Each structure stands twice: as structure tokens, then as C-alpha cells.
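// run 5 | inverse folding | seed 20
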């Protein structure tokens, strides 16, 4: 009886044993402690059990937790960052392992302060340009691929000034465009029933886009925004004479339709030129400068039709006829290759825009079906995601030609997909070592040995506080495991990882098996 009581007492002590997770939040630039930062700690995979504390003037935080794996995030002035980043937006974050053999009481949480980009837009007479549109394009690595996309837009005020605040440090491009106030005032809208002779006859003055730091897209240069920096980027727009673009696009009266004119700009991202509401079937856009443009018309307020056409504008007026068509759709069914391991949790179909990495997600219905409506035309990639690790092993299409897992979606197309899903996945656990010491915050990468072009076949993991990595739901097959101290590596790009493969570790992952394999840091081989 007494022995049982002692055993119960020891068990209770073991359950109640806690370990410290503490440290200091510091500004990554100055190293100074940060006051009034909200630090949040939660057991891995259990967000409802989150705890939070606000730092004082010394920047310190402290928690007592049981043995286990935890994530830490901090929030300051509305911006949140994970623990373990090596730079602004670099890395997935480092999990913390607690236990008797782990020192987690003196962590240093480096906070990368947001920066700002501002400037002034003037014309070639030095006068401010009001209502100019400034486009901010960010270059970043997402899921192992370099992505270039529009991060924000800003309009200039009456002084020609603009500002992008609270921006994560990194690489950006800037583009400015607009219209002289007198040309914008002179723009004529052709009302329903008006004659073609009502179009503007005199050519209007306009501003071609300016690409920082100059005026031409080929001379555009990236702007590097350091954490907490205030960067000034001014533009001078040149005044030129443009031509008229006459757009004819019949649509039912009472339906809202908007027209965009864009051109291929810097870093593969479209540059915005004009945005005009169509009040009738015809519209004249004045002051269009020479160049290659995409004219796109889209319905609004329940009108899902769209149309687009590429035009080449020279020194004379251009006419373009557009016919609205229903929005493109992508639908289909997913069949599971092996019916034995049925999904226990939701499986999602992801439709990825390959130009900018933007995605749409749909959960499979009870019959394995999915549907995307009103999809913008362009190159799209199909992926399966979900906690159970199923992936698309085979894809067949009607209405488009598949190239691997991607296809070109035409305007108004109705594409039907038949996806075969596989659950042939395994797991890989281990440590990144530098000699006999584990490396915290390294990037461990699984590279398919066959050099697959599918980005989802590559897996990245930022090692946790004990130097470990833990890959779950890895497609069965042969890989090269590499580890680098570069969290910005474009690891799903075969060309970017190729220099590291010779010093990597071969790994074979069998279906439903767990492999344990350590690896050393992989120096590049040139």
C-alpha cells in the first residue's frame, strides 16, 4: 500500500515537472531590448492552449511549460514574427524543444522592424503629379520558389507624395504612372447610342510608366529595404503625346463592366495603365503611349463575364473589339489510388497561378468533387494538400493540355480534371550537424533525385532549437538531403540546389515508413 502511494507520488511529480522558456526580445538592428512586445507561446499543433506575456523595458519574457515542442511568436504594433528568423521574412521559424537536456531559459528573439518607402512624383516641369499610381512589387521566396508580385498600391496626394509604411524588409521594385490633370479632364466618355465621330480627335498628352530609378523597364533596379529603414524613391514622369485606343465591347445595359489596360512591366509583373468603367458598348482611351498592352474587361456586381486581347500601340489610333465570355471554370474529381488508407481529415485542391504564386483552395466534397468558378485566364498548376499528405500522382484533363501538373487556362474555358491521389508517403527525422554539434535554424532540404520540376516534390525545414528536422508526409522515393545556413535559398528550383547536391546525403523513403538520418552542412561545389 505504502509502495503504491510512493509510486503515485513520483508519477505526479513527473507529470508536474516544468521547464523554463524565457529570454529577451531585441531589435535586430541595434540589439536594444524592446518594450511592450507581446510574446506568444503555444504547444505545437494546439493553438487553443496559447499563453501570452507583454515585455517590459528590459524586453524579457518567461514561461514555465512541461516537456514538449512549442512555437513562439511576437507581435509589435500589429506585426507578427516567428522566433528564429535570420532576416526579414527569411525562414519558417524555429520550434522550441523543452526538457531536462535542453537550455531554453536564455533565448534571444531578434525582431526585424518594418521599414517604409516614400517619395514624390513630379512631371518634367518639376510640378507635383496628383493622383499618380505607384505600384510596389516585392520579390520573395515562397515555398522554395522566387515569387514576384504586387505588394501594394498608393495614390499620390496634391503634393505628389506617396508612402508605403509598415513594410517587411527585403527586395522591391517601384513603378509610377499617371495622367496629366488636363488630359484626364479632357477624356471623353462615349455614352450609350453615341456615334464614333464623338471620339476625341486631338491626341492627348500622357505619362509613360516610370520604373525606379529611371523611366525604362529595362533599367529598373531593385530597391533593398533594410529592417526599420526609411527609403526615399522619387519619380519624374515625362510628358509625351499618346494616341487613342477605341474599345468596342457590347454588354447588356445595367450591368457594370470595368476595363483595365496593363503592360508587361518589371520582374514579370504587369504594370497598371488605366482603369475605366464602361458606361456603354464603346469607350475611347486617350493619350495611350506606344507599347504592347493587354486590354481586359471584367463584369462586376454579379456579371461574371470577361474578355481580353493583346494590342500593339504605335503612332496612330487603334481599335479593338472584345466579346464578353463567361468566366473560366476548373472542376473535377479526385479518386484515391489505394482505397485502404482513406483520408481522415479534409483534402484540398489548390489551383496555383504560376505567374505570381497566388492560389485558390477548395475542399473535396463527399463524392471527391471540386469546382473553381470565374478563374482568371493564365497558367495554372494543380496541387493536393491536407494534413494526411495525399498528393496528385496523376492528372488527366478535358478542355486543356496538361504539362506535368500545369496547364494553360483560356478565357471562358471549362476545364474538367480527373485526379488520382496517392497516399504513398513516409517520414524523415534527424539532425543537422556541424561536427558533433547540432545546428539550430539551418535550412534542411529534401531534393528529388530525378530532378522533378514539381515544386511540391521539394521539402524545406528550418531546424528547431535542438537542431532537428521532422518531415511528415513525404512522397515515397529517392532524395538527396542537403543542409545550408541560407534561409533565403530558392530550394524548389533545381538550378539553385544543384551546387549542394554533391555534398548531400542520399535518402530513400519507403511508403508508410519512418527514416532516421542525420546530415552535415552541405558546402556548395562549383
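// decoded
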Amino acid at each position: 500500500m505504502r509502495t503504491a502511494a510512493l509510486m503515485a507520488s513520483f508519477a505526479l511529480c513527473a507529470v508536474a515537472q516544468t521547464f523554463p522558456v524565457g529570454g529577451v526580445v531585441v531589435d535586430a538592428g541595434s540589439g536594444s531590448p524592446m518594450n511592450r512586445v507581446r510574446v506568444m507561446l503555444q504547444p505545437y499543433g494546439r493553438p487553443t492552449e496559447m499563453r501570452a506575456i507583454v515585455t517590459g523595458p528590459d524586453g524579457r519574457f518567461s514561461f514555465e511549460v512541461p516537456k514538449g515542442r512549442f512555437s513562439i511568436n511576437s507581435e509589435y504594433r500589429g506585426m507578427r514574427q516567428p522566433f528564429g528568423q535570420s532576416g526579414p521574412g527569411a525562414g519558417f521559424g524555429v520550434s522550441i524543444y523543452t526538457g531536462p537536456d535542453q537550455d531554453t531559459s536564455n533565448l534571444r528573439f531578434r525582431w526585424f522592424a518594418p521599414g517604409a518607402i516614400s517619395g514624390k512624383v513630379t512631371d518634367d516641369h518639376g510640378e507635383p503629379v496628383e493622383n499618380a499610381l505607384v505600384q510596389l512589387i516585392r520579390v520573395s521566396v515562397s515555398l522554395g520558389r522566387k515569387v514576384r508580385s504586387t505588394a501594394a498600391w498608393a495614390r499620390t496626394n496634391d503634393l505628389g507624395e506617396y508612402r508605403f509604411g509598415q513594410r517587411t524588409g527585403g527586395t522591391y521594385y517601384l513603378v509610377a504612372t499617371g495622367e496629366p490633370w488636363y488630359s484626364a479632364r479632357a477624356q471623353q466618355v462615349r455614352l450609350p447610342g453615341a456615334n464614333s465621330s464623338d471620339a476625341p480627335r486631338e491626341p492627348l498628352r500622357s505619362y509613360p510608366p516610370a520604373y525606379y530609378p529611371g523611366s525604362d523597364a529595362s533599367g529598373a533596379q531593385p530597391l533593398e529595404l533594410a529592417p526599420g529603414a526609411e527609403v526615399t524613391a522619387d519619380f519624374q514622369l515625362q510628358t509625351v503625346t499618346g494616341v487613342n485606343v477605341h474599345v468596342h465591347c457590347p454588354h447588356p445595359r445595367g450591368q457594370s463592366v470595368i476595363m483595365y489596360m496593363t503592360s508587361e512591366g518589371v520582374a514579370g509583373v504587369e504594370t497598371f495603365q488605366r482603369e475605366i468603367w464602361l458606361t456603354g458598348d464603346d469607350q475611347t482611351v486617350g493619350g495611350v503611349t506606344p507599347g504592347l498592352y493587354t486590354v481586359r474587361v471584367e463584369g462586376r456586381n454579379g456579371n461574371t463575364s470577361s474578355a481580353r486581347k493583346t494590342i500593339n500601340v504605335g503612332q496612330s489610333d487603334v481599335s479593338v473589339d472584345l466579346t464578353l465570355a463567361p468566366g473560366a471554370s476548373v472542376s473535377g474529381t479526385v479518386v484515391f489510388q489505394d482505397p485502404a488508407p482513406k483520408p481522415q481529415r479534409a483534402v484540398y485542391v489548390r489551383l496555383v497561378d504560376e505567374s505570381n504564386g497566388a492560389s485558390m483552395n477548395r475542399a473535396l466534397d463527399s463524392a471527391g468533387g471540386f469546382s473553381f468558378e470565374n478563374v482568371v485566364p493564365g497558367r495554372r498548376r494543380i496541387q493536393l494538400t491536407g494534413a494526411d499528405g495525399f498528393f496528385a500522382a496523376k492528372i488527366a484533363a478535358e478542355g486543356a493540355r496538361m504539362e506535368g501538373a500545369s496547364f494553360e487556362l483560356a478565357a471562358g474555358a471549362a476545364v474538367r480534371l480527373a485526379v488520382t491521389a496517392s497516399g504513398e508517403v513516409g517520414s524523415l527525422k534527424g539532425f543537422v550537424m556541424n561536427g558533433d554539434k547540432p545546428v539550430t535554424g539551418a535550412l534542411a532540404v529534401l531534393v528529388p533525385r530525378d530532378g522533378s520540376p514539381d515544386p511540391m516534390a521539394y521539402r524545406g525545414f528550418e531546424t528547431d532549437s535542438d537542431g532537428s528536422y521532422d518531415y511528415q508526409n513525404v512522397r515515397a522515393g529517392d532524395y538527396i538531403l542537403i543542409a545550408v545556413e541560407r534561409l533565403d535559398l530558392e530550394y524548389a528550383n533545381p538550378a539553385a540546389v544543384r551546387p549542394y547536391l554533391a555534398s548531400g546525403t542520399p535518402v530513400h523513403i519507403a511508403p508508410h515508413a519512418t527514416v532516421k538520418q542525420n546530415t552535415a552542412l552541405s558546402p556548395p561545389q562549383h
